[in-house]
Please model this.
Amino acid sequence: MVPAEYYFLLAMVVFLLGVAGVLYRQNLIMILMSIELMLNAVNLVFVAASRTVGNVDGQIMVFFVMTVAACEAAVGLAMVIALYRRYGTVETNFLRALRG
Amino acid sequence: MGEWIAFGALAGTIIMCALFVVLGRNPVGCAIALVIKLFALAGMYGVIGADFLAAIQVIIYAGAIMVLFTFVIMLLNVPPDSRSRWDRPPVEFLMVGLSVLALFGVGIYLIFGAFAGEGVEVLTRSLVTEQGGNTLMIGRLLFSKYVWPFELASILILMAIIASIVIAKKYNTEES
Model:
């Protein structure tokens, strides 16, 4: 059996890649995709930990995280579409209506 | 031994595809890399023994959510990034690098310092089979202990449906 630490390490690497993507990408759709990467990394931690803890409560948490992720993707992409209609771009360096 | 081989192959796929999602310039390529990464993660769930979640991962993530992403990318006809990725002020690289490094330190401490030595397998395959399988265990728990969160999740989804319709609707600003 692979120790749970290895799964945690893999999840941490994917989570940090997601953080770097959110901080660094300028395309709003790519930022949403990076958020999905981070949510997936957290899911992997829940599943790997549920095996060492000895019950399936962690897997039910993953179920709820997936529900929230689906809602977040739907609302986020709707906002991207509304922004695109209003400004004609989805790149954050062109969206500066709130910058003085 | 078999779990090590599967873990190595799937971990390599996941990290390569995640790198491509973060670094790739073309949104369609990034979306396809993310789909491959989600499939590899479903395989990882299967390796760990969460069979139900592996199926759900393929259906919800790789099916529904990624179809939504690719649909929006096609609908908006998103071009590749206009600015080059490296044509940015150095302070931005510094800030991203510093925050990632700080989080890396916290993660290493949590994994090998605070929670070290707790990685003993309790929920073995034979134990799960004894209790009727992974899906039956999740179903029993979901409709007894977690029945209220389950119902609230359905309300959340309804709210998200209404919100996304209202946000993305085209309003006629001339009349109002």
User: Anything to note?
Assistant: The mean pLDDT of chain A is 88. The first helix of chain A runs from residue 4 to 24. Helices of chain A lie at 4-24, 28-53, 57-87. Chain A is about 80% helix and 0% strand.
